[in-house]
User: What shape does this take?
Amino acid sequence: MLGLLLLISPVLGTAATAAPGKTLERIVLALYDGEKYPDVRGTPIHRMAEMPLNHLGLKVRYHDIHQPMPDVAGMKGVRGVLTWFEDDRNPNPKAFVAWAENVMKQGVRWVIFGDLGIHHDGGGKDTSIRLLNRYLARLGLHTDGRWETPTYDIRLRKKTPGMVEFERAYEGILPPFLNVRAASADAVTHLAAEWGKGGASRSALVITGPQGGYAQTGYTALVSEKRLLWLVNPFEFFRQTFATDQLPKPDTTTLSGRRIYYSHIDGDGWRNRTEIEVYSGKLSTEVILKEAIEPYSDLPVTVSAIAGDLDPEWYGSEAARAAARKIFALDQVEAATHTYSHPFDWNYFGDSYNPLEEWRDFWSQQPASHHWRDRYPKGAASAPKPDLAGQAEPREYPTPRAYGNFPFDLKQEIGGSVRALDPLLPPGKQVELILWTGDTWVSEAALREASRLGLKNLNGGDTRLDHEFPSCGWVSPIGVALGGGLQIYASASNENNYTHLWQDRFYGFRHLHQTLENTESPRRLKPMNIYYHMYSGQKEASLRALLDNLNYARAANVAPVSASHYAAIAEGFYSTELISMGASEWRVKNRGRLNTLRFDDASGKAVDFEHSHGVVGQRHYQGSLYVALDADAREPVVALKGHPANNRYATSARPYLLEGRWEVRGLSYPRGALAQFTARGYGKGTMRWKVPHPGMYQVRIEKEGGWKSSITAKAGDDGLLSFTVDAPGLTPVRITLGVMDEVL
Amino acid sequence: MRHYWVFALVVTGALMVSVALLPREQELRVMYMKGQRYAQARAEFENQLARGDLSVSIVMPLKDLYVHFGEIDKAVALLERFVKDHPDNVSALRVLAKLYGDSMRPTEQIATLETLHRLHPGEKALRELVALYDLHGPYEKKIAAFDILVRDYGAGHKETLEVAFHHASHGRHKQALDILSKPGVHDLSLEVEELRAGLMLEIGDREKARVTAVKWLRYNYDAASLERFLHLFQNRGEDGEALKILNNFEEKITGEPKLLLLRAELEMEQGQNDRAIAQIRDLSREGRLSGEEFAGLLTRAVSAQKGGFALRLASEAAPEKLADKTLASIAETALREGQPEVMKPLLVKYGDGALSSRPVLAGHLQGRLVSAAGAGLPASSLKNWQRDLSTLLDLARWHADSNSRAASGLPDKGAVSRALLARLSQGALTDAGKLEVLTALSRLKVKEPLLAHLEAPALEQGGPYAELYEQTLLRVGGEASPRLAIFRARMNSTPVETKRAIALRLIDEQQTAQAETILRELALNAPPESEDVRTLISLWAKPLEPRNRDWLIDRARQSTGDTQAAWMLHLLKGGAAHAVVRLVGDEIPPANDAVFDRYLEALVTLRDGPRFAAALEPRLRGPAAGERWMIYATWAEGLDRYTIAKQIYAKLLKAEPERLDPLPRLGAMAYREGRWSEVVDTLGPFLAREAGDWKTNYYFSEAHFYLGNSFEAQKYSLQALERMDAKPEENLSMRVARAYCLKRLGRKNEAVTAFRQLLNQKNGDAAFRSRMTAALGELKAANHSTAY
Assistant: This one.
């Protein structure tokens, strides 16, 4: 074992590795101002920083600085602290600095983005320079407390390529900055300001060191409601400041070595009449069924309906219900709910929700309001009078939800909608998840309710990365942890965002390609996701755009999964624990359905199959190593070894999966066969294996019930064996690989 | 007869009326549109377009129809065609710009709006451009657009401020000031007035600057803002004006110790020492002056060479003990000012801790004191001199001074140098401390060891480090020193040819990392086929590291057409096929042939058969000829896209019937699929004119065998054997083929030997064994006079 450690430790260089048996810290504690941001989803950390942190394998836990700071001794699993304050006040700077010092003394890294946030206390009193320097000392920094302004004669120097000017050069009016310099030789300045005669005066603007880093406000990113652009490279900055090189990354984008694909439909527009000539008189839903679902049986799709659209007591019609039955009957369709009444503004239905107010303001003139009268016989007159002074801001939505037949009831919205959909599902199928509606800023209570009912959840995020949104600041994190619940975000935006909220440019969804490509390369940030509404079947242009996207997905090398499967993988990101077993060996625990670990900058590394367990394959891609785990292995062990970087495919005495469309599990090497495993998936089961020797191979395929087939395939001199299992994969197939001869 | 004529007239009249009532084409199209029969309307408009009608009445409705159907590319192509014919049609340009925007083609959108603005200058197009430049760059164009907005249209506050800032940052202070006086600047915030005052100082109008500051502060006073203005003036050496500003707010600052201290500092700078000292004394007495602030002021006074003030300050006012470092600075100042006697009372007051660790300094001081009584300065004690940085630096200065040799009992120059180098190696110095030590070592004329410590900061930070490094290199190797040349090569002022020569020399000397740094700079704007680029790429490992790959991607992105293709080729050779695919982006297939080839090549490398097929498919509809198509076919075969390969070969043969090279490939594909007649039909003509390689002859032979043509089978088996014999090496495939050829030829013994050898070689392969054993069995059982 010692020899092994000595052998493999050079693979990872001289950086410090965790002691064997230690659980690797994956949490970043994000401090935010809860008075400015009542909901963490609005903070710049969540909007911009959390995605790169997720990509580096880190998950974020939020803490409001207006609440008591966490007990230092109890910060188990915390790798580092991140602050991104936008103003300079702290309720108690002295106590905060003392707490920060204690935290840093435990070896926790500290990263300051933006303002120090402690220049003044809650009453506006200045913080002393001495206290500021106490705060900065452990980061190897020192300040004289002066702000340099105006900045027209400032020159920016020492720009580390790849660390700064990531999406935009520093141009225009340079923001004022705090005069800070490195006080330790270990601190590395990546961006410095210079001024005065001959550049005599200098200040550090972006700086990293062994304990963390600091990037000054105005030099990190451009953040506003409608504009996001990174100035610092967040992947590189956080990689260095949180020292993530030795941390394997639980990856939610990849399965069986391929990019994950999933698709989901929100039920909005279920009852819309289509304008497409050849389908004149039909519902949009029927168009989607005929054009986008039925012909694409190789691509899974999760379809959700708004129960209010199907419930005859609300707005349901027989045509709408018939369409639902047909859709849910298809094998490739997974059932989901899109709530009962489609809330737009979830905050409206929070703790301060008053049904009478809702009725008074929105529904009292509507025909369906008779339902309310049954519950509120005294009518809207008994509702409290509106506070006109408090309604200065116009609402984003004309009504807080789509349908207001009954007072809002969270249990009805979620559990009730599931019960309403159940009769429309074929035997054996059930509603698997809830797709959030409207602004998707759902409450903790809603998440809890969904979880209680065993439903996965999805939506929110609105990822885009294209010419109109040219920043990875618009790529959402995997989800958000709220209270004890997890909201999982969709991986791409729907057509609403491409069509100016369904007002024009109805072909806009075709531009989804750009986001799909930009979130694939140079880094795979997201799985491929086609997310749309039923109303895409309403217009010629929108339907074409949708089909264009589906054809793009069909031609791509992806591993299609259902949306609930993806949601489970995403949940696995948060639950995964990584236990260090040695310099290059880790045990993976509690990963749920997440089955890929990623190692970055790993062209020179490969899986050491002799010392690994529960690994079905590996793939080098874009400089990273994607390790595919066996879904049947409860706690896989991944060991790595050195690998010559000019050797495209790492050699191994055993066959391993390079990439495949289906999920592979239960891999074994029985006598008389090269390998045996079970596979399951959508479409044809194309896969590529790396086998020890070139030559002809036989692939035996078996399904439960006695169905069998066999094909032959050839592995070339590179040892790559490609074959396609042309059998329905929705029920698992057992595959056995064996050698056969064939020379020519 | 008359009835007949009447009848004819009525019919003719009726026909004429009915023809008149038939809708004409234009009316037909409108009817379809109004009736929402869009497909038919589109067909009608397209017919008209095909007839060459490019009028507005056709183009615009057809554009709308394309948009209705989501065929935005067609809508764009249509408008491009129209604009090509009507390049000055502003309305059409506007429509085209919008279409480009809707299809997310910002480069073309910007170009179109720029054309629009040239033809029809206006604020609307300019503002659209600004929004696009803001999102996509370049910044220079954005600021130029702002400039026009400010000058001609009255821009808003933010834009005006940005233009002013831009001019200011380029030293055009007067221009910036003029901009600030435009009406657009309506929010006279602190930032704006601070900028205005700063610019006034730049152009030497200090009085106006002061008036600006005071005027603003009168209406918006707060301590922080006043402090900001004061720093502004102070940083620009206008302490006198800063004091004048302060004097306007005398009453307001009485409760602000920070501002009072700042005033004292300004008074010190202006030589108003009495007032400054008095202020500080008051602050100290009132407990409103911390030790840190006092020491800070003392230090600034010493740094500003205000020795007299510093000494007086230290003597007259001090709330608590001075830090050792500060005390030592005062001691040095005292010596410099020729007032060593000042130190005696200070040392009594503050203790001699600092000086006891600075024995050299203490020695100097002692020598100059009138009386040493009560001071007890340990001039000769140098215990732990290596550990104390101040002492080390003192000693270094001592040795660098020509009189230093006269002193006895001090560590020698070598020991001091070694101690300083050790401090550098420990790495615990601040930036300032590091520079002090390096300077001291340079003054001590240390050479090689100093270079090791200087190189990195000299290259990364330049400035004093670069100067020291260059001086040291000169001392070490003289002007002809290679290292000096390398260093200078990396400096901006060196001519390009010299840098190139140095880079090549570095490569010869195996210093590739340094050579790469120089070459990167040289290659930055060079074409892809240039020597600099080729040399640079030759240094890179394959597959390319991300930074090298990204470097190539940036070059490719900035170019088009054949040049872009050339960059793509570099990427492909570097193993970055995916990057090439991304570069092509939405334009699939690429219009440029060279780019198209590179794109295909990338897809082949990535083994992306579906995309390869999709890219090639449009071109397959046209003719295929030339070597390029042979390559495409070979690629298609490599991706197992045999249908496409066959299509190409068939087209090639149709275009060039005399061409032979597709035939063996078609024959091989037919052989793999077991279509023997096709093998014969394809390879026959080929082998009639060419000798063919062993495989072609073998396939042909086998095909004849399966078709029962034994004579032909034998003939070509023999030819296959002859080709094999001419090969220097034999792989497994060839050996199996040889065994079968021998079998076909009836050369039993040789065939048996060959099969047995094959059996022995692949012993563990059961199926192969089975096949070879069967062949052996056939040989033994058959009548070998017929060889089968």
